[in-house]
Amino acid sequence: SVPSFFSGCMTLMLQSPNPHAARRQEIIAVDAPKAYINMIPDAVQEDVTFRTQAYTNHTTILSRTESAFSRLEEYATAKLVITNRIHVALPCVAMGTPVIFINSKDIGDASTSRGSDRLAGLTDLFHTIDAYTEQDVEERFAAFDWTNPPANPNPSKFKRLRATFWNIIRGHTT
User: Fold this and answer.
1) CB pairs under 8 A, 24+ apart, for 119-122?
2) Distance in angstroms (rounded) separating the CA atoms of residues 90 and 96
3) pTM of structure
4) Is the pLDDT of residue 110 over 50?
5) Hey, CA dihedral for 73, 150, 155, 50, is it positive or negative?
């Protein structure tokens, strides 16, 4: 008898820090497994920048916050982000940046048979490569439009999740 709902994640509420900034040609790979990065066509390899979500040099809340904001600015203007980090993928969706999400055993809490349960209901918000079920990953990478990456799929679900959050917030502020 506990009321519940599927909310996705609060990061879906983020907006681009600079909505008028132009997209750059940069493809950002955040903690993406090297085997998948190697499948990116040679013609666009020079556009790939590697990042990690591990924060090791930040000793204050202010420095961590500044670094996180800087990353959001990068993601918001990237041509494409490739990651296996859900909290990289979801902010990118919220800011309109195309994402290739790699569901593989490299996700920290993944089981050996299907991936992380935290992903349930979210993987259709971005271009997902499922290493557990797909046999044609190299073909999908080869067929992907690296020059003009397509928008993330399922924008209506994203808008519905965002609206649900706003309705919950409004309900608790009156």
Assistant:
1) 119/86, 121/6, 121/8, 122/8, 122/9, 122/86, 122/89, 122/90
2) 10
3) 0.88
4) no
5) negative
